[in-house]
Amino acid sequence: MDSAPTSLLQGTLDLLILKSLMTGERHGLGISRRILQITRQTFHVKPGSLFPALHRMEEEGWISSFWGDSENNRRAKYYRLTNAGRKQLKLETKRWDRISWAIAQALEAS
To answer: pTM (2 decimals)?
Structure first.
């Protein structure tokens, strides 16, 4: 099996970002690293995809942000899950469960 990081499927980025923030606030690079970790090195989210998604999700009210210092003492924007984001994570998880079940059924069909 190829161990190189894989591109994300349409619609999964929001789910993975929200899931990565369940354990606490993170800056952008921390979110990217957490996604890589929780997907067992399968999905690498590039900044060109991550930051527009974070901006959009903040506008939706699913996450909030604040400025702080990173572990390297550099100024970084941190993101945290809001109550609306927790609700959205539940919705996105149910949606993904339904999609993945349907794909599995299609692959098993003769």
So the answer is: 0.87
For 93, the token pair is 């998880």
**How far is 87 from 40, CA to CA, in rounded Å?**
25
Place of tokens 């699913």: 62
Q: Which residues pair with 79 in a beta bridge?
A: 26, 65
pLDDT surpassing 90 at residue 88? yes
- Residue spans per domain, the chain: 12-108
Return the axis-axis angle of helices 47-60 and 12-20, rounded to nearest 10°: 80
Domain 12-108 has CATH 1.10.10.10: yes
Q: Could you tell me the pLDDT band of residue 64, with boundaries at 50, 70 and 90?
A: very high
3-state helix, strand, coil split of the chain in percent (to 5) is 55, 15, 30
